[in-house]
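Reviewers of the previous submission asked for a worked example of the structure-prediction workflow described in the proposal, so we include one complete record here. The input consisted solely of the amino acid sequence. No template or homolog information was supplied to the procedure at any stage.
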Amino acid sequence: MGLTNAVVYKYRKLDEGNPLRSWQLACGVAVYERLMLPNLGSEALAFYSYLLEFYNKLPNLAVFFLHDHGEAWHVSCSSLAARSRLWYQEAVEGGPMMGRMISFTSQEQDNITAWYGGPNGPAARTRNGIRGLLQSNPGADVIHQEARDIAVKWKVPTDNPPGLFMQCCASFIVPSKALAALPAGFYRDMLRFLAKTKDTLESGKAALEFSVWRLFSTDTLDDTALAFYNRAKEVASWLVKDPALVHCQHNTC
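From that input alone, the workflow returned the following structure tokens.
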């Protein structure tokens, strides 16, 4: 992925009796395992666990958050590697995208505008309030309202600004400065909410799915962002047969 000297935390929710592991990999990459129980809250529990643990010592630039799987309907290995490498180049060169949230979600041959930029796509529906930050979903009003109440308590905005670019599926880059801008108490209360709510699907939606884009971004899919994603699409076409991606591509879900 091109992330020299990155520090990686791998969260698992199984095998409580097994010792925590760590790895030292090439290019200075270090991996540390965390045990995350109870097995609730889907990926959101890992996200908020990380934020609360490292709130006072976040990385200088950004946090990468990824599903623990390889090739999937919503994330291709080549797209993930391409966007990761291009972000690293932006960081080295001080490019404009180093300070924005970046999605790893990919579908329809990585055509980001076809999937989420069209007038009837999920992003447009989200902007109209169907899946805005902590909005109530039919059949899960109590869960979503509790999450929304936490945001209101900590004065975290809960409405989507016009044209906000957002995507699904819990795979993204978020600038550290955006994470640090929200109070630690908000992260603590969201973590407690996730750890006690039995309906993992709905609590994960309320705390993470789409919601992170409103929490940490106000960006639209402007020309700068489009240029980045289109360049990543080109790079991904070169990487798709890279031997380094074989394991990722075979680890499907």
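Residues 38-250 form one domain. We consider this example representative of the routine output the project will generate in years two and three.
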